[in-house]
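Appendix B. Raw example, untouched.
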Amino acid sequence: MPAALASLPIIRPITDLRTQLNDVCAQATSTQEPVVLTKNGSASYVLLDHDAYDAISRSTREYLALREAEIEEKYRPEALSAEESDARMREVFAFLGENHA
């Protein structure tokens, strides 16, 4: 998303948790965006709705899995057939002195 279109973060003082907890939680739920809680003018905590957290976590896991696949493809471009894989495993087991058929 271009920087010009990115929304500004939701910033609230941490005291709002004590005085307006329901409002803070409702805001996090309705916007599905993190609410940055400040203490003495500095960001201290982030409150995030559970569904938004799940979506971010899922997206992160998917990104990491895709990135891992890209790295795997780059550094291990050859694919092994089942026969080649079995032969290599037999070599490993033979080296280790184990008998696996």
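End of appendix B.
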